[in-house]
Amino acid sequence: MKLKSLVIISSTLALAACATVNTEERSNASRATIKNMTTKMQDTMKGVMMSDGPIKAIDVCRVKAPKMAAMISKQKGWDIGRTSLKIRNPANKPDAWELAVLQDFEKRKHRGEDITKMEHTEVVTEGGNKYFRYMKAIPTAAPCMTCHA
Fold first, then answer.
1. Fewer CB near the terminus (10 Å): N or C of the chain?
2. For 118-137, how does the pLDDT look when each residue is reduced to its tens digit (9 = 90+)?
3. How would DSSP label each residue in 16-60?
4. Residue 56: exposed, middle, or buried by beta-carbon count in 10 A (0-12, 13-18, 19+)?
5. pTM here?
6. Strand partners, 70
């Protein structure tokens, strides 16, 4: 099973302004957002594959998914995106934190851990500001393998 990842990053959480952060609450919100987004992407992909074939389905990943991520980012006030160790679009290149987490996911996958349960949360300091960051591994589903194999 190939490993793709969707990244959820909260860019609006200034932890320096508050004493504590409820990482469980933020993780739950991130999980729910990822589930919603991946379900919509998969449903859209299946519909396009059935009606227009795999060539047209490429636009779901290339065009519609980034628009969906941008829309949800705006609604939530988060920075949401997709990345992978094997990117197709240079704009999706993982940053240093994402790369480290992706490499850890890959090691865990090779040790036999269930990809669908892999996630990582962390409060990080970037540019003098603290952020809550969350990453969830999203395995490449069967319909995706038409293009991503």
1. C
2. 999 888 888 877 788 889 98
3. GGSS---HHHHHHHHHHHHHHHHHHHHHHHHHHHHHH-HHHHHHI
4. exposed
5. 0.82
6. none
